[in-house]
């Protein structure tokens, strides 16, 4: 259960949400995405209530979550083409090639999900978000199954997103990723915010996570 949380995410800002399993991180992300409705209060996106079924939200909010979102019979390239077409991206071929290369998937463009490693599946989910327009990017533990080099590239990707004016809400277990990517960090414990501030201040050795997520 989440206690009341007052969180504003501005364009071009990355906020990281950390905490141990069961702290409420994923619940917060589902509410932020409009998938769950809070029992009290409300979530707004650009001045209107957040609802994942709102066409405006679908057009402008990208969510990276569970690998179960993959279609077993579609190749990597077909996944990206489907997302690009659904979001009206014209002449997407070159952009898809760019995203494949950016996520180190160009050698696996014709592979189906079952032929990918767990890290490559995670990269596919990120690629699906990158191939479409977005003003808000919601990331649910995107560092899972990524090796250290891929996590560094993920931090660079988030920095590039915020530089382009995209707001990023990053739910993560990885303290170093939060330090590299976010300008603000919240730490949850039992559904409550127990720390809120700059990552270097919040994620200290004697802080609420003991320096580690």
TrEMBL record:
Pfam families noted in UniProt: ABC_tran
SUPFAM superfamilies: P-loop containing nucleoside triphosphate hydrolases
Statement: the UniProt record of this protein carries the keyword ATP-binding: yes
Residue stretches making up the ABC transporter domain: 1-213
Keyword Lipid metabolism in annotation: no
GO molecular function, one term: ATP hydrolysis activity
Key words, A-Z: ATP-binding, Nucleotide-binding, Plasmid, Transport
InterPro entries in alphabetical order: AAA+_ATPase, ABC_transporter-like_ATP-bd, ABC_Transporter_VariousFunc, P-loop_NTPase
Protein name: ABC transporter related protein
Biological classification of the source: Bacteria, Bacillati, Actinomycetota, Actinomycetes, Kitasatosporales
